[in-house]
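About this split. The held-out portion is used to measure sequence recovery: a designer receives only the structure tokens and must propose an amino acid at every position. Recovery is the fraction of positions where the proposal matches the reference. Here is one held-out target exactly as it appears in the evaluation file.
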């Protein structure tokens, strides 16, 4: 890399990246861009398997926008063809195949929501049915011949299902090949994806070589953990924050995450410098900063990004309007195995029985940090304090030790 600008841009693009194949190749592509002025084709694919984009998607889109700001062309691939296969990544069973009408309905909302982050002037939104539907049987055979079954079974989810004797349909093997062929069709210079997509992205590199193209650089970003603090954020897990959710709901959901998970959100969803995040952590350890204040700032940042600062400030006011200034405090010892919410409600005297507590949850009258609870089997495992409201009159802050 001969260009100082290249080194600077490379450092920017590497920030927050987990996998990079390879740094040297990316540096050469950046050098070439500076010499010749031809933007790189940066590809990322999204299968419209649901109607909404959530904050987990935006981690990848932030990196796409970074490439755009450096002058490159982003190919936003709507996987209307691959969605008909159903990507089994991270799953232990064949994914439900959507109908063509469902896919197209979802794709419409994806297109509008994506531009909350991406620059529409620098984004080419393409549907992979454009080229995949044109593959006749002989071309499909040729594509399938470029990868063997042994290599396909190296993919983690396929390997685990094969070992456990779970079903793997033949059409599922077509998914990585179809995604890889997207890179061939677009002559992609870079492909971005989540860490769970690394196998598919590397298939794209191989196929490009097989078709006589320069292999794409592969870059992965971390997966955002959902509100439950366990699974990756996904609509199918019900642990997500949609980018079109009302400001009040978005603010309240961010406030509901654990203190530990808060730092992951800061790093992946905000532009707050690393040194400022470190200073906040030190302040909490030294008891000069309350974790709740850091979480409020996080909720304000995220809500303002999608709704504007006035709406974010109003959401904050609405959130705290439900909480009395002289809030009662309830100290609770958290057992090693956690504590069922039903037991907690009875323990602090908010109901006289677990049956009554269950009924309050089922009727929608139970809230944790202004977030409605619907799971009667919810177990508290984190020692983070929270505001618990049961019915119209019972409200207090639960502090765990």
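Reference sequence for scoring:
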């Amino acid at each position: 890399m001969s260009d100082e600008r290249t080194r600077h841009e490379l450092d920017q693009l590497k920030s927050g990246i987990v996998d990079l194949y390879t740094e040297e190749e990316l540096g050469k592509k950046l050098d070439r861009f500076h010499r010749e002025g031809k933007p790189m084709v940066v590809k990322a694919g999204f299968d419209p398997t649901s109607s909404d984009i959530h904050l987990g998607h935006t981690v990848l889109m932030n990196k796409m926008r970074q490439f755009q700001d450096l002058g490159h062309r982003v190919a936003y691939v709507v996987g209307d063809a691959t969605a008909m296969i159903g990507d089994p990544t991270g799953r232990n069973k064949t994914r439900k195949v959507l109908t063509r009408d469902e896919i197209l309905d979802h794709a419409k909302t994806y297109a509008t929501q994506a531009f909350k982050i991406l620059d529409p002037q620098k984004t080419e939104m393409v549907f992979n049915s454009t080229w995949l539907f044109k593959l006749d049987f002989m071309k499909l055979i040729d594509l399938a011949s470029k990868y063997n079954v042994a290599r396909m079974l190296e993919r983690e989810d396929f390997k685990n299902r094969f070992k456990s004797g779970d079903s793997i349909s033949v059409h599922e093997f077509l998914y990585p090949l179809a995604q890889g062929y997207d890179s061939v069709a677009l002559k992609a210079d870079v492909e971005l994806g989540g860490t769970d997509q690394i196998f598919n992205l590397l298939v794209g590199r191989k196929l490009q070589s097989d078709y006589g193209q320069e292999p794409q650089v592969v870059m992965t970003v971390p997966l955002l953990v959902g509100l439950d603090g366990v699974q990756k954020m996904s609509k199918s897990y019900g642990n997500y924050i949609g980018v079109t959710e009302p400001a009040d709901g978005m603010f309240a959901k961010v406030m509901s995450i654990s203190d530990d998970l808060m730092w992951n959100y800061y790093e992946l969803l905000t532009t707050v410098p690393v040194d400022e995040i470190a200073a906040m952590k030190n302040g909490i350890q030294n008891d000069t900063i309350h974790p709740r204040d850091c979480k409020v700032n996080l909720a304000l940042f995220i809500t303002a990004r999608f709704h504007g600062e006035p709406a974010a400030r109003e959401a904050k006011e609405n959130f705290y309007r439900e909480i009395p200034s002289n809030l009662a405090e309830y100290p609770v010892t958290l057992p090693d195995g956690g504590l069922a919410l039903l037991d907690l409600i009875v323990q602090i005297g908010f109901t006289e029985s677990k049956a009554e507590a269950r009924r309050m949850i089922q009727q929608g009258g139970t809230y944790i940090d202004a977030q409605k609870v619907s799971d009667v089997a919810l177990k508290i495992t984190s020692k983070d304090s929270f505001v618990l409201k049961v019915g119209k009159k019972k409200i207090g802050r639960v502090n765990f030790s």
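Annotator remark: Residues 245-321 form a domain with the Tyrosyl-Transfer RNA Synthetase fold (CATH 1.10.240.10).
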